[in-house]
């Protein structure tokens, strides 16, 4: 049985000009120990589809699906109380903006310990010990002292490490990482990706890696879903995707990689479709 199974997910937002469909019939599965990358340009519905899984969309969102299960449990039928027991514990998410996701008013130690208190009911000294262990696991030096730091006293890379520590605090079965490296310096990006892959392997987690970067896909994923304008364009294992992309949109994404650049500038997706051909022509369900 797959860890996460989604069939025909549709998310629509109520707007002043009517309903806007941000996710338009996406289906996907993630198995235990598997890394699934969801790739696609800005606005293709990557974050919205995963926020729907987490139940974290605002009330203006209408979420429907033929199926949305985690470990066989129907996520669409959970009560708020049942959802709170699963989300942040068995399914954890690293959000797209690490600094905005940490609370500036509390120390990082407090924020990590709060996860441990809420989900695992740990006592004070046990929490502190586990928080130190977690900061150590994500590569923060002097973890015991750093627990007393506020987010603004840490670098972007360190904040991202803290977010990862919070996400893995309860040993989740599924970790959703939403563009975990985009906000970071290039030199730090590789370290964070390596850390995530190492933790995923050590803990045997399933992982969803959301990115618009084919380089990140190549480094991390077993399987890939390519999304465009809320629809799934293609799904393949990572080798087949790079060697034999089927949809025009995937070909365009690959052609924008630095290795494929000719001349003094990188081609863009718009260059690739200069002839006006329809990108979305080859959507698959
Ligand atoms: N709360 C909301 N209300 C209305 N529209 C929204 C809301 N949240 C997202 N959208 C729209 O849904 C679409 C998909 O957004 P989403 O954030 O999932 O894109 P994304 O693929 O994650 O992009 P990025 O790579 O920039 O993070 C976008 O057009 C976005 O403007
Ligand atoms: Mg996003």
UniProtKB/TrEMBL annotation:
Keyword annotations from UniProtKB, A to Z: ATP-binding, Cell membrane, Membrane, Nucleotide-binding, Transport
Membrane topology listed for this record: Peripheral membrane protein
One Pfam family it belongs to: ABC_tran
Primary location group: membrane
GO molecular function, one term: ATP hydrolysis activity
Gene Ontology cellular component list: plasma membrane
Annotated SUPFAM superfamilies: P-loop containing nucleoside triphosphate hydrolases
Location within or outside the cell: Cell inner membrane
Alphabetical GO biological process terms: transmembrane transport
InterPro entries: AAA+_ATPase, ABC_Ni/Peptide_Import, ABC_transporter-like_ATP-bd, ABC_transporter-like_CS, P-loop_NTPase
Domain ABC transporter: 4-254
UniProt record similarity statement: Belongs to the ABC transporter superfamily.
Name of the featured protein: Dipeptide transport system ATP-binding protein
Species of the source: Microvirga guangxiensis
């Amino acid at each position: 049985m797959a860890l996460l199974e989604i069939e025909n997910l549709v998310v629509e937002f109520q707007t002043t000009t009517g309903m806007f469909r941000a996710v338009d019939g996406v289906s996907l599965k993630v198995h235990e120990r598997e890394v699934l990358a969801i790739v696609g340009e800005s606005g293709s519905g990557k974050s919205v589809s995963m926020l729907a899984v987490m139940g974290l969309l605002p009330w203006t969102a209408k979420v429907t699906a033929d199926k949305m299960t985690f470990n066989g449990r129907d996520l669409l039928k959970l009560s708020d109380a049942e959802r709170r027991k699963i989300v942040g514990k068995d399914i954890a998410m690293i959000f797209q903006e690490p600094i905005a996701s940490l609370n500036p008013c509390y120390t990082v130690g407090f924020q990590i310990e709060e996860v441990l208190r809420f989900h695992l009911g740990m006592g004070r000294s046990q929490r502190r010990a586990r928080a130190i262990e977690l900061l150590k696991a994500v590569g923060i030096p002097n973890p015991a002292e750093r627990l007393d730091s506020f987010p603004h006293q840490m670098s972007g890379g360190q904040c991202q490490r803290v977010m990862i520590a919070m996400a893995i605090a309860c040993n989740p079965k599924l970790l959703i990482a939403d563009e975990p490296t985009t906000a970071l310096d290039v030199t730090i990006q590789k370290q964070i990706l390596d850390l995530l892959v190492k933790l995923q392997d050590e803990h045997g987690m399933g992982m969803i890696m959301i990115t618009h970067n084919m380089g990140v896909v190549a480094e991390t994923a077993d399987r890939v879903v390519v999304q465009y304008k809320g629809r799934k364009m293609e799904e393949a294992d990572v080798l087949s995707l790079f060697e034999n992309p089927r949809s025009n949109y995937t070909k365009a994404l690959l052609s924008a990689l630095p290795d494929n650049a000719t001349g003094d500038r990188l081609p863009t997706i718009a260059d690739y479709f200069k002839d006006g051909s329809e990108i979305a022509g080859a959507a698959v369900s």
